[in-house]
Every structure is written in C-alpha cells, then in structure tokens.
Amino acid sequence: QLQLVESGGGLVQPGGSLRLACAASGLTVYWLDIGWFRQAPGKEREGVSCISLTGDNTGYGDSMRGRVTISKDTANNTVYLQMNSLKPEDTAVYYCAAARRRLCRSTDISNDYDYWGQGTQVTVSS
Question: Is 4 in a helix, a strand, or coil?
Fold first, then answer.
C-alpha cells in the first residue's frame, strides 16, 4: 500500500522560502509520477508542479512558475518542492499525489493521480 506524507510547511514571512517534502512508503518514487497541489480556503485545488516517473520531465503551474523547483531524491524516497519568494497568496494546504503511470507534462498538471497525502499547511504572513 503506497502512503504519502508531506512535511515542511509552516509560517514564513513574505519573500521567504520553504522546502516541502513528500515521503513515500510502499513503493519507490523512481516508479512514481508525483504532483504537488495546493488548496486555499474557498478556492479550488490547483496544480503547482509535477515530476515524471523517471524524473526526466517536470511541469509547473502558472501561479508559482519561476519560484518553485521540484526534485526527486531516490535515496530517501522523497520528492521535494523548493519554494522561494513566497507571497501571502501562496497561503494554502499543500498536497502531494502519486500515480504509477506517466501523467506529468510540461504544459499542464493533471489532477488524475491515484494516491494523495494528508497535506501540510503553508502560511505566508508578516
């Protein structure tokens, strides 16, 4: 059974940085397509970033493109989302999701993932 656990969220000032982690158990991340999503109160969930099974393709949503970087660490079975230049409007619960097939494209971020974590809260405020 694949399980995903997010960590790394918290309170950060505008302009600050956070690195979110998505730790997988039950399957190696090398064989997983991973996506990061976020949902703010009263808003729809939106795709932030994705990385393909073998890590050869990444995608970024319009809202955070240029400020986030996704990466896979197969040694620790974890996918990271480095977020820089954070803004108050980035405040949301951030989720990672996984699929055992290729979903990630550079042009858009699919919602069609099969496994989801519980989320980690990111609050950007002074």
Answer: strand
